[in-house]
Write a structure and sequence with these properties.
This protein has about 525 residues and is an alpha/beta fold.
Length: about 525
């Protein structure tokens, strides 16, 4: 954050670029800033600088010559400038400037600075906090290979051309909160947290980072957005992208070109990213798609176990490629949405029971109701069917029917309950077969006592019932050839229920193996 000095500390001379205004830069002597010092006074000031010296150039307008004069004593002939605490807040650089390879051993402040040409910070090292908040980059912003050891703040900055942050490393948070990019944005490397909340991009956005979190809530992009992530949890709530939006969870560590030709590839540092429970780097996870238009969204190899889908637009058009992992029910029999966990946990709570093994909604997240969940499951089922993922679509059909049954009225609820009981909505083959055997056993009991002119042994009645169910006309020695009227009714029930249960079992098997 820029702290403006009191009037006695500001330069009172005319502004270098606008003589009609006062300069208002940091005063070094008698109301004059570095740009307005007499040549002798400036030489004396610069002669007192050494590599690692603090520099106070707040609000100064740097000509190309003045900038080089400042760097000379800080580099001491080594070609790389070394700064202590560096305050360039509100400074203006009318021409191209290069801080390439420069070292900043303390706080580096470039907040509200204006770069009218290219700003080169490639390979720069920021040991302390680096503040570029509300800076204006009229030319290219070149930060390839830069190192930020205590975070980098580019919040509300404006980039008129390409912003290149290739092979960067940020220990802490890389903040681009509400930043504006008129050109392309490239971010690759390592960051503990990358914040693109409510950023605006006119060009392409390409991010390839190993990070704990990527915050892209409210991101606005008019071109393609590509997020290639290692370990990161990404929030895309309310993002608006005119082009395609792809999120790819990387299975292998990120590598990029090294500084030395003898080492062609260098792996991005992943220290601190491993999950102690897993003993490895976790899969990149999408935590929220709420308010996102999924018409051009492609998710590949990402963890969706905690993803919030409620409120996503055109969910039926989302593309799920590779191995996308969803949550499972407590018995791990089917894939479910995180919202179903929240809904069931809340319902159990309202009934005076604990959540059991269903996960409650995180703080600040309100569980959605069963009709909304039914629609979500239906839309995502269609997306999986279009992708020829029938087993995955089957799980979501099961969830759709569960939510439909929860919101149905009495008659429909009873019908759906029976459908669930006897076949798991046509998805559980063992239930259909078990129901068939139960029906045979029950009807055989009726046949044994009322199906024939005289009672017969139960095992003989059971064998007769099995043959009747599969429509095989085979006589049994201990069973009379004639049946009573009740026996005829029971035979009709057997011959109708047999094909029904076999068909349900076959349908369930097909839904599980079809591709």
């Amino acid at each position: 954050m820029t702290i403006l000095p009191v009037d006695s500390q500001r330069c009172t001379r005319p502004h270098v670029l606008d003589p009609g205004e006062r300069c208002r830069a940091r005063s070094l002597r008698d109301g004059r800033c570095l740009a307005h010092l007499d040549p002798g006074e400036r030489d004396a000031y610069l002669a007192g600088l050494r590599p690692g010296s603090d520099v106070d150039a707040m609000g100064v307008v740097f000509t190309a010559d003045l900038f080089q004069e400042l760097l000379a004593p800080l580099s001491a002939g080594r070609g790389v400038a070394e700064f202590g605490a560096a305050d360039f807040a509100g400074a203006t650089f009318p021409a191209d400037v290069s801080f390439h390879g420069a070292g900043f051993s303390a706080w580096a402040g470039f907040g509200h600075a204006t770069f009218l040409g290219d700003a080169g910070f490639g390979q720069a090292r920021f040991t302390g906090p680096a503040a570029f908040d509300s800076a204006v980059f009229s030319g290219r912003a070149l930060f390839t290979g830069a190192r930020f050891l205590e975070g980098a703040d580019f919040a509300r900055s404006s980039f008129a051309r390409d912003a290149l942050f290739g092979a960067t490393r940020v220990i802490g948070e890389a903040r681009f909160h509400e930043a504006r990019f008129a050109g392309d944005l490239l971010v690759t490397g390592r960051a503990d947290e990358l914040d693109l909340t409510r950023a605006t991009a006119e060009g392409e956005v390409h991010v390839e980072v190993a990070a704990r979190a990527v915050l892209a809530e409210g991101l606005r992009a008019k071109d393609r957005v590509s997020l290639r992530l290692r370990a990161a949890r990404v929030d895309l709530s309310g993002a608006v992208c005119a082009g395609a939006l792809t999120v790819h969870g990387l299975q292998e560590p990120i590598t990029h070109a090294a500084d030395s030709p003898s080492r062609p590839l260098r792996q991005v540092d992943e220290s601190g990213l491993a999950d102690p429970r897993l003993g490895r780097v976790p899969l990149a996870a999408v935590t929220s798609l709420r308010g996102l238009d999924a018409g051009q969204v492609v998710l590949t190899d990402v963890d969706l176990t905690g993803c919030l889908f409620a409120g996503v637009h055109r969910a039926d058009q989302i593309q799920l490629d590779g191995r996308c992992v969803f949550a499972t029910d407590p018995r791990r029999r089917r894939r479910v949405l995180a919202e179903e966990h929240h809904w069931r946990a809340r319902r159990r709570f309202l009934r005076g029971r604990g959540p059991g093994r269903w996960s409650p909604a995180p703080e600040g997240v309100r569980p959605v109701d069963s009709p909304r969940l039914e629609v979500l499951y239906r839309q995502l089922r269609k997306a999986l069917e279009d992708a020829k993922n029938e087993p995955g679509a089957a799980d979501f059909y099961y969830g759709e029917m569960e939510m439909r049954r929860a919101g149905a009225r009495r008659a429909e609820r009873l019908l759906l309950w029976l459908y669930w009981l006897v076949s798991g909505y046509g998805l559980r083959a063992w239930r259909a077969l078990a129901a068939m055997l139960a029906v045979v056993a029950a009807l055989a009991l009726g046949m044994a006592h009322a199906g024939f002119p005289r009672p017969v042994p139960y095992l003989d009645a059971l064998l007769h019932s099995l043959r009747a169910m599969v429509a095989v006309d085979v006589k049994t020695a201990n069973v009379p050839e004639t049946v009573t009227h009740w026996g005829q009714v029971l035979q009709v029930m057997l011959r109708v229920s047999g094909p029904l249960f076999v068909g349900l079992a076959a349908l369930a098997i097909r839904n599980r193996v079809k591709r």
